[in-house]
Amino acid sequence: MPTTFSFETQVGIGPKNTPATAEATVRDVEITAVIDDGVIQLGDEIILTQSYFISPPEWIAAGLTPVNQGPDPLNAGSNIYTASAYYYGTTDFFSFFGSTHTGFVFGADPSFSLENEFLLLFDDNLDFFGFEANVLTDIESWNQFGTSLPLFSQPACFLAGTGIETPEGTCAVGDLQIGDEISSASGRIVPVKWIGQQIVSTFFGPADRMLPVRFVAGSLGPNVPHSDLTVTADHGMLVGGVICNAEALVNGSTITRVPHAEMGKTYTVYHIETEEHEIILANGAPAETFIDNVSRRAFDNFAEFEALYGNVPEMEELPYPRAMSARQVPGNIRDKLCGMRVASFALVNF
């Protein structure tokens, strides 16, 4: 069966300084992956399908080319329209009532451009001519001023079930609350300021290099981590005095990418924010807390942070060097991890 997904509402917007286009009549829009590999990744081509009595105005506003495929046998007076588009990522928009609505961004060009025309699809039924009218204004503001900001795919996080060291012992990350005390790697006790949470759909999956990364027990050092640890690809792990993105450490055996098939249809990720950037222990492995070089807006519960803290100054990053790709990982760290891989392999096969 082809990889398909249905959305409830859509908005088309043209070049900068043009109004957003949305129809008062809400009809589902279906997308289908052109290459059916079970997931839609950034840059993938998709086919839009909608039943309507005219060419969808939102598609035209977004620079897409609707094709009339003929009458819809299930809806008298309507035709089935299709169009080709490319998936760019997601961005969030906000209503007056503080609710967050994630827009999935598509366009006619194979790659995202600041000057593109865009089609935004929403997985909820929005009343753009009533309670959510200001969402259109937010979309127009984004088109005018915000397209230079990166689209969201997935923030750097711990996966559900990760054990975080606290003064009282290990606590699952999903059970932590604001104000709870956790232990830093240096032995300091620090309170939790906020827990960012996001439910990730594997249908709109990241590129392969951004798949979650699994560290088997002992892959970073003796008993580090003390049990298998899975984090998102961009999560920073402190190894040999360098904060390394998890995906930069992948070695194909003891540190591996986790296939989409193992993650289910959705999975939940969490990030811990403390007052300052810290190194804490996740399943016994040193890992960083949230640092705002990634927007908090990527989290599903951003409105909670905004209500609690409003605008906050930028955080100061810990003074460790950072390796964001494999080529930036120092040779001595690569050699160390290679030795751990050999040791782990020997233990498994003893």
How does this structure look, described?
With 350 residues, the chain is mainly β. It is 13% helix and 34% strand. The protein has helices at 57-61, 133-146, 302-309, 331-348, and strands at residues 4-7, 9-13, 20-21, 29-33, 45-52, 67-71, 79-94, 100-107, 118-122, 158-159, 163-166, 169-172, 181-183, 189-201, 213-215, 229-231, 236-239, 242-245, 255-257, 266-274, 279-282, 285-288, 322-323. The strands form 6 sheets. Strands 1, 2, 3, 4, 5, 6, 7, 8 and 9 form a 9-stranded antiparallel sheet that branches. A 4-stranded antiparallel sheet has the order 10-20-14-13, with no helix packed on it. The longest helix has 18 residues, at 331-348. It is elongated. The two termini are 44 Å apart. Mean pLDDT is 88; it is low at 345-350.
Structure summarized in a few sentences:
By secondary structure, the chain is mainly beta. About 15% of the residues lie in helices and about 35% in strands.
Q: Which key terms come to mind for this protein?
A:
single chain, 350 residues, 4 helices, disordered C terminus
List the topology elements.
Blueprint: E1 4-7, E2 9-13, E3 20-21, E4 29-33, E5 45-52, H1 57-61, E6 67-71, E7 79-94, E8 100-107, E9 118-122, H2 133-146, E10 158-159, E11 163-166, E12 169-172, E13 181-183, E14 189-201, E15 213-215, E16 229-231, E17 236-239, E18 242-245, E19 255-257, E20 266-274, E21 279-282, E22 285-288, H3 302-309, E23 322-323, H4 331-348
Parallel strand pairs: 18-23
Antiparallel strand pairs: 1-4, 2-3, 2-9, 4-5, 5-7, 6-7, 7-8, 8-9, 10-20, 11-12, 13-14, 14-20, 15-16, 15-19, 17-18, 21-22
